[in-house]
């Protein structure tokens, strides 16, 4: 009998944004990744154009959160962009979907993320709804990566190779300082995303 695998529900998730404390959001719209289609045909080809991949395009990450003292960080993040301080504004980020027990189940990482738009909440004295602010975050590529398991965590604790640990009870940002790869659908060098994992497997084989 095949093992049953149920899909994860969307209601529990956390966000990790480099340099920001805020990680709880009421809504998170993950982006899409598409490649433009370039049509080309030569006279000797069949009467159908070739489909060649063009530029990779990534939609924005849209975040919504209730207004609190801690959410002030989001507005300040946007202010860095308005002041032209892009070196400080660009952050690595990750969205982590949690399972029913609160453990990491799926993970998407983003590189060179910065807020392109900030929407203040709409206030209405005749309603009792929560005041919600909205942030639109653009980036230069994202990918879904494997979530580190407890076994990987045990192996990391046993090895003393000096490699930083990605797997823990509270997920931490991986090393996103990777170059743009050639020929990859999302322009991301995925082996570099798993550098720490490869570093742990190496000592075990020797």
Automatic annotation (TrEMBL):
Ranges of biased composition (kind: Acidic residues): 149-163
Coiled coil ranges: none
Pfam families (alphabetical): Phage_T4_gp19
UniProt-annotated stretches for the region Disordered: 146-206
Biased composition annotated in UniProt, kind: Basic and acidic residues: 189-200
One Gene Ontology molecular-function label: structural molecule activity
NCBIfam families cross-referenced by the UniProt entry: conserved hypothetical phage tail region protein
Record-given protein name: Phage tail tube protein gp19
Lineage: Archaea, Methanobacteriati, Methanobacteriota, Stenosarchaea group, Halobacteria
């Amino acid at each position: 009998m095949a093992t049953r695998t149920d899909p994860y529900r969307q209601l529990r998730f956390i966000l990790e944004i480099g340099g920001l404390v805020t990680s709880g959001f009421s809504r998170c719209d993950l982006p899409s990744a598409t490649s433009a289609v370039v049509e080309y045909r030569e006279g000797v080809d069949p009467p159908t154009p070739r489909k060649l991949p063009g530029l990779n395009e990534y939609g924005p990450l849209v975040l919504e959160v209730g207004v609190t003292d801690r959410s002030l960080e989001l507005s300040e993040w946007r202010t860095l962009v308005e002041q032209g301080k892009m070196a400080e504004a660009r952050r690595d980020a990750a969205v982590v979907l949690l399972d029913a027990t609160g453990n990491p189940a799926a993970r998407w990482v983003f590189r060179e993320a910065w807020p392109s738009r900030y929407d203040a909440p709409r206030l209405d004295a005749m309603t009792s709804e929560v005041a919600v602010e909205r942030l639109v975050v653009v980036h230069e590529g994202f990918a879904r990566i494997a979530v580190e398991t407890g076994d990987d965590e045990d192996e990391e604790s046993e090895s003393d190779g000096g490699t930083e640990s990605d797997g823990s009870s509270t997920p931490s940002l991986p090393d996103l300082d990777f170059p743009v790869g050639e020929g990859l659908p999302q322009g991301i060098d995925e082996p570099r995303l798993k550098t720490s994992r490869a570093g742990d497997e190496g000592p075990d084989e020797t």
